Amino acid sequence: MALLEFEGVDAFYGRIQALRKVSISVEKGEVVALIGSNGAGKTTTLRTISGLMHPTNGTVMFDGRDITHTRPSRIVELGISQSPEGRRLFPRMSVVDNLFMGAYSRNDRPGIASDMERVFTLFPRLLERRTQIAGTLSGGEQQMLAMGRALMARPKVMMLDEPSLGLAPILIETIFSIVREINSQGTTVLLVEQNAHKALEVANRAYVLETGVIAQQGTGRDLLASEEVQKAYLGM
């Protein structure tokens, strides 16, 4: 059984259907990417998994449990955390306080301290900036903080929504190398990313969403080699 299963999901914004019978699965230990153009339904998929939206039809299963209508805070407690598009930090709070907010559902102080050390090892820049107000960080530093905050929940699945958006190329390389490192340390990753080339390079498997429908799926390598994907998303 997959760690995360999203089966036959229909989702609507009012009368507009955003997802049509979408099915994806994420096995333990994988990096799975969702690629597609703006408005394809990628963020809607993440919102439905995290409980911020509820599907009209279909089910969301996590670790053998039906979480289709579970409240978002409980989903975080069960082991799914998200680094959202646009980062959504607490801009007037310090770096450290933002990280503590990621661990709000936990009360294991030694574990929280250990995970804080892990975040500072993954993101040395955050250690340097630990007392700085989050809103004054650079875009790259804010992205690192959003990812670090998601890790502080000690998730089984970490969902990343457009982690490279608006970043300089050198920072994009840094972010994706850290995604690989997080995954190698045992965290399963579901990645939504418009930079299809980088997403497919890092992904074990990937799905292509087009206007709310799964158009293609396969290994990251296979989709990188697909002529359709190259023309549509890789500018080839």
For the structure shown, list the relevant keywords.
4-stranded antiparallel beta sheet, 2 domains, Rossmann fold, 6-stranded mixed beta sheet, alpha/beta, globular, 236 residues, single chain
Summarize the structure.
Helix content is 39%, strand content 26%.
Secondary-structure element string: EEEHEEHEHHHHEHEHEEHH
- Summed up, the helix count is 10
- Read across the widest sheet, the strand sequence of neighbours is 6-7-8-3-9-10
The name of the CATH architecture of the largest domain is 3-Layer(aba) Sandwich
- Any idea of the CATH class of the largest domain? Alpha Beta
Mean pLDDT score, rounded? 93
What does this structure look like?
- The protein is α/β, with parallel strands linked by helices.
- It folds into two domains: about 1-80 and about 155-235, P-loop containing nucleotide triphosphate hydrolases (Rossmann fold, 3-Layer(aba) Sandwich), CATH 3.40.50; about 90-155, no CATH class.
- About 40% of the residues lie in helices and about 25% in strands.
- The strands form two sheets. Strands 6-7-8-3-9-10 form a six-stranded mixed beta sheet, with helices on both faces. Strands 2-1-4-5 form a four-stranded antiparallel beta sheet, with helices on one face.
- Strand 1 and strand 2 form a beta hairpin.
- Helix 3 runs parallel beside helix 6.
- It is globular.
- The N and C termini lie far apart (about 35 Å).
- The model has no long low-confidence stretch (mean pLDDT about 95).
